[in-house]
Amino acid sequence: MRRLPLTVGFLLGFSFAIAEEPKEPSVPPTARLAVPFTIARGTTSRVIVRGQTLDQINTVEACAGVTATIIEKGEAKLPEGWKAEQLGDRQITLDVAVAEAFVRDTVKLVLSGDSKTTSIGLAIVSPEVLVVEKEPNRGFKGAQLLTIGSTVLGSIGSNKDVDVYRIDQGATGRLHIDVTASRCGSSLDPILTVYDARGFEIARCDDSPATAPHDAAITIETPSGKRGVRYIVIQDAHDTGSDTHLYELRVTDSVVDPKKSAAVDDFVAKFHVAQLETATDYRYQIEELSPSGELETLASGDDLKFRTVDVSRKSKVTAVMISCVKKDTVRVWEEISKLSPDLLCLSGDTLYIDTIELEDFRRKHRDFLNEAPLANLARPVSVVGIWDDHDFELNSSPNHWPRQEVNW
Fold first, then answer.
1. Is the peptide bond before 29 cis (omega within 30 degrees of 0)?
2. Where are the beta strands (DSSP E) in 136-294?
3. pLDDT value at position 210?
């Protein structure tokens, strides 16, 4: 009888030993893939975000013009051979509404919960160019018809699946075809092939150096007498397929996206800004959105600003015209700045390039435009340019040079 308290004490001690505090998940909430990763402005789209530990997410934030509402959370089935850290084994379903006036071509969704956040990026396009892949489209006879400028959302849905599209090149001499998949977390490793109307292969691309690893892009330059129907074929390099083998196919007549910079354009990007109000001051900054949704600020500051013209005003418009710029022009730019011009016109022979070497040409223009007084003047002011001989070649140069004499 005297041993009983010792036995009870042992049992109680064992009971306390197995009562452990709940552990936090070893993997924080992490978004891996959005399905689809491209949506249209002016619409509400159902988007499924795959990832890890997404059960903890309870709020989703975007930016002005975009709202996201959580519909449900649950398990995400992994395709055979894939791991949770690659595609995610949990998912969260959202309704993402994009205003018609939203002008950006990307948006970052920030998913938060329990003091932890993750993010994912979505591409935004106009609804008139967005096309959804239609099955069956496995062969030339069943090819889905596209037009130049289309953005297609598709998937290689099963093993050995092949998607075929037909497009008439028409009067377009250049055809640029780009497939986005791995850049946005897709499990597709695309092979892109282009055939002519007779079924002969024109071009083929597996991993393009111009895109992220495992994505593909092809540019075709076609003489006027040989243009016509083209067949675009997309398949997986490993003949696998699933509902996560997603892709975005863009077909344009331009190699460079006007909103992206590239070496071929000396890293110049064009942005078309709409919905501006008259007589209004605007500030801006330039950001880059990665496929993972991380936002990096490339340029910002109080000097990034402009003012729209008051269309109802009766006062004068100040336009400044300048040419034959020499090296020591700091005072000239400073005096022009004091005028607060509405327009700056570089009216020919703005600077003296006097070269037919492309690298020298680019360097001289770049150095000229980066001069601080000119850069500060031009940043908030509309600038137009007229090209004369010294701006792009030699003094009194002809309207063309023999190919062997000009290095561009």
1. no
2. 144-146, 151-155, 162-168, 174-180, 190-196, 201-205, 216-221, 229-236, 246-252, 281-283, 286-289
3. 61
Within a 10 A sphere around the Cβ of 179, how many other Cβ atoms? Answer: 27
pLDDT at position 141 over 50: yes
pTM exceeds 0.90, yes or no: no
| pLDDT level of residue 397 (50, 70, 90 thresholds) | low
The two tokens of residue 385 are: 């340019």
State the pLDDT confidence band at 104, using cuts at 50, 70 and 90.
confident
Read off the amino acid at residue 309.
V
ω into 136 cis (within 30 of 0): yes
Please determine, for residue 408, whether its predicted confidence score (pLDDT) is greater than 50: no
Per-residue b or e along 182-220, where b marks 16 or more CB atoms closer than 10 Å to that residue's CB: bbbbbbbbbbbbbbbeeeeeeeebebbeebeebbbbbbb
Amino acid at 405: E
Output the average pLDDT for the chain.
82
pLDDT, mean of residues 239-261 = 81
List, in order of start, the domains of the chain with CATH numbers. 30-125 (2.60.40.10), 130-252 (2.60.120.380), 309-392 (no CATH)
CA-to-CA separations, 136 to 133, 152, 166, 226, 263, in angstroms, rounded: 9, 15, 13, 29, 39
Q: What are phi and psi of 292, to 5 degrees?
A: -80, -5
**CB atoms < 10 A from the CB of 308, how many?**
13
Q: What is the DSSP string of 312-352?
A: T--S---EEEE-S--S--HHHHHHHHHT--SEEEEES--S-
How far is CA 333 from each of CA 36, 91, 322, rounded to the nearest angstrom? 49, 56, 10
Residue 333 near residue 326 (C-beta atoms within 8 A): no
Dump pLDDT digits (tens) for 330-372. Answer: 788 888 888 888 889 988 877 777 777 777 777 888 888 878 8
